[in-house]
Structure formats: structure tokens, C-alpha cells
Write a structure and sequence with these properties.
Catalytic activity: S-sulfanyl-L-cysteinyl-[protein] + uridine(34) in tRNA + AH2 + ATP = 2-thiouridine(34) in tRNA + L-cysteinyl-[protein] + A + AMP + diphosphate + H(+)
Number of domains: 3
Largest sheet: 6 strands, antiparallel, barrel
Number of strands: 18
CATH architecture of the largest domain: 3-Layer(aba) Sandwich
CATH class of the largest domain: Alpha Beta
Keywords: ATP-binding, Cytoplasm, Disulfide bond, Nucleotide-binding, RNA-binding, Transferase, tRNA processing, tRNA-binding
Distance between the termini: 48 Å
GO molecular function: tRNA-uridine 2-sulfurtransferase activity
Family: Belongs to the MnmA/TRMU family.
Strand order of the largest sheet: 12-15-14-13-16-17
CATH topology of the largest domain: Rossmann fold
Strand content: 25-35%
CATH superfamily of the largest domain: HUPs
Shape: globular
Radius of gyration: 21 Å
Order of helices and strands: EHEHEHHEEEHHEHHEEEEEEEEEEE
Helix content: 10-25%
Number of helices: 8
Main location: cytoplasm
């Protein structure tokens, strides 16, 4: 069945090949580049950042080669409000957010999808490495490029209007196909950093917006063992950059208290977490359940998958890990996977707090 498809074209190789594949599948495709930066830089530096003038031009050239109409949508205001400001406010609350996940939720599959449906499109096509199987989100065949984690926040009704043509391909295969299609972006480097911080200096970006107020670094007993220039510069599990005095062993960030502007540090074993509570659960691969279900969970974009039991309680997602995890930060997503190969997204939520069976303290 031929569909009217809006292909989101970032200017990279993945979205270009995805758009070309949608055309090849017989769909009526229109390309759109999302202008997300208020003041886009003219050129990227290596593989850093995106949303540049160069990216817009690359997307337009790809659309010309593919032979589809192309438009640029200015979504800088929405992006600043829903992604950048959310990122800053989350750090101000002592959390470690994932802006790519929030962009997928609020921009690509909310603002863009709403506008696309209003204009008569049936689906939004992107170059994400993930699959849709019977309406459920499934990992890519390329585990190194899988992006199901950052898409897991999408609701079933949003997935029903999504199209991911690259989920059955490896990244090498994508680049080879781009070359065969004479797409100039075939060897363009991937962007690996937060797109609105192209120089990679997250601490500097946050300092400009939140200030740099000096505060104490405490050990588990509350003794001052150092100072810092802003609690927002740290994340749970961090070891480098602590500048501690008289520390006989390695210490890691255990918790962040933005109101008191304190950072608490301790040994690695104090990071062990066995229970996680996540807010705003989204059940996309199964029905919500109040009974514990055996599954697997991923706790960060590049984190290991761990066995667990999970259920919903009072509007929150409760996750009990079979084995302790370390470096679990509030603000990150907890994504549940199930199915025969544990590759189907069942649900997701934003980590709010954690605890250890042997500890009464709750962090987050």
C-alpha cells in the first residue's frame, strides 16, 4: 500500500538512505529538514554536533538526488523549549538527562508528527536504527548502532505513524547503499555529541546558564573532602574531575543535592543499586501490569542489559534488578525489553530514584 510519507532528513547518511528506501518501496515521499538551532553554525568540527547550515545543504542535495520535494521547517523555538531548556533544568535538579530521547519524544514524533498528520501525511520516516514488528519497537540488527533505547519513549499511537527503513541493515550496509545511490553523504561522519553543544563542553554550556557557585564535596559521613564549582557539573558514578584532598582510595559521585549545592562521594560499591523507580511510564510493547514480569532492562544509552522484574505501581515503573547495577543516574531512561531474544521494547520510564536492599537511603 502506497502511503504519503514525510521523511525527516538531518543531512546525514542514515536519513538520506531511509528516504530513498521509502521511495523505492513505492511511497509518495516528501523530505523535510528540521532547523533546530536559533543560530546555526556554518560548519561542523569533525563529527561534532549537527543542525548546521552544512547539514541543511546536505539534506537538500540528497533530496535532489533521490528526486523528492524538499522543505525546511523552522522548529528552533520548540526545540529550545522542549529539549534545551529541559536539559538545563534537569541538571539544575541534580539529574542527568538524555536530550536525544527528549528530542524524539517532543520534536520528531510529537510536533513534527502532529504537523505531518494535519497536512495529510500517513507516516514520518527517519533514519533511526530500529525495527517495527507488528507495531512494536524492536532492536536493530546492528547492535552497535541500535537506537531503540532513545525511541522507547514513543507511545503506541506514535509508533503506528512511524517508519524505520534501516532497522534490518548494518551501518556498513547503509554507507555502501548510499554510495551506490550516488549520495554525497555516503562517508559523512556520524555526529556523536549533544547537537546543541557542538564543542562538547557540557560543563561550560551549563555554567553559562546556571552559573558556577562553589560548594562542598562530602564523604558518606558528611565530612568535607573537597570543593566544586557547581553541582550541575557532575553525574552519579563520575570519578574524574573531583579534586579531592587526602583520598586514600578512588571515590565516585554517589549523589547530587542541587538545593544545598553539595556533591557526595564514596567507594564504588556504594553505587550498587538493586531497585529503580521510574516516572512517566510508557507501555508500548505490552499492556501495563501490576504483577511483576521477568524481563531485561537497559539503564543508559550505551549501558549493559540486565535481568530484572518490573511492574507498575501508583503510576510509576518499579524495577527490581537480579544483580546490582552501578552508576544509575536519575534523569536517564530505564527501558524494558522482552520477547524470545529480549529485543522487543516493552516499556520505558524516566529514572526518578534508586535504592539498595542493604541501604535505607534513596537517591534521586
Amino acid at each position: 500500500m502506497s502511503l504519503r510519507v514525510l521523511a525527516a532528513m538531518s543531512g546525514g547518511v542514515d536519513s538520506a538512505v531511509a528516504a530513498a528506501r521509502a521511495v523505492e518501496a513505492g511511497h509518495e515521499v516528501t523530505g523535510v529538514h528540521l532547523a533546530l538551532a536559533k543560530n546555526p553554525r556554518s560548519y561542523r568540527s569533525g563529527a561534532r554536533g549537527c543542525c548546521t547550515v552544512e547539514d541543511s545543504r546536505d539534506a537538500r542535495r540528497a533530496a535532489d538526488v533521490i528526486g523528492i520535494p524538499f522543505y525546511v521547517w523552522d522548529m528552533a523555538e520548540e526545540f529550545d523549549r522542549d529539549v534545551v531548556q529541559d536539559f538545563v533544568s534537569s541538571y539544575a535538579q541534580g539529574r542527568t538527562p538524555n536530550p536525544c530521547l527528549r528530542c524524539n519524544e517532543k520534536i520528531k514524533f510529537a510536533a513534527v508528527l502532529d504537523r505531518a498528520v494535519a497536512l495529510g501525511f500517513d507516516a514520518v520516516c527517519t533514519g533511526h536504527h530500529a525495527r517495527l514488528v507488528d507495531g512494536r519497537l524492536v532492536r536493530s540488527v546492528d547492535p552497535g548502532k541500535d537506537q531503540s533505547y532513545v525511541l522507547a519513549v514513543l507511545r503506541p499511537d506514535q509508533l503506528a505513524h512511524a517508519m524505520f527503513p534501516l532497522g534490518g541493515m548494518t551501518k556498513d550496509e547503509v554507507r555502501a547503499e548510499a554510495a551506490r545511490r550516488d549520495l554525497a553523504v555516503a562517508q559523512k561522519p556520524d555526529s556523536h555529541d549533544i547537537c546543541f553543544i557542538p564543542d562538547g563542553d557540557t560543563a561550560g554550556f551549563l555554567n553559562e546558564r546556571l552559573g558556577s557557585e562553589q560548594g562542598p564535596v562530602l564523604d558518606e559521613d558528611g565530612a568535607v573532602v573537597g570543593t566544586h564549582a557547581g553541582a550541575h557539573q557532575f553525574t552519579v558514578g563520575q570519578r574524574r574531575g573531583l579534586n579531592l584532598s587526602g583520598a586514600p582510595h578512588r571515590r565516585y559521585v554517589l549523589s547530587i543535592e542541587p538545593v544545598e549545592n553539595t556533591v557526595t562521594v564514596g567507594p564504588a560499591e556504594a553505587l550498587d543499586v538493586t531497585e529503580i523507580v521510574a516516572e512517566r511510564p510508557v507501555w508500548s510493547g505490552t499492556e501495563p501490569t501490576a504483577e511483576p514480569v521477568a524481563c531485561a532492562v537497559q539503564l543508559s544509552a550505551h549501558g549493559e542489559v540486565q535481568a530484572c522484574r518490573a511492574w507498575e505501581r501508583s503510576g510509576e515503573l518499579v524495577i527490581e534488578l537480579d544483580e546490582p547495577a552501578r552508576g544509575v543516574a536519575a534523569g536517564q531512561a530505564a527501558v524494558l525489553y522482552g520477547g524470545p531474544s529480549a529485543d522487543t521494547v516493552l516499556a520505558s520510564g524516566t529514572i526518578a530514584r534508586t535504592r539498595n536492599r542493604d541501604r535505607s537511603a534513596v537517591s534521586g
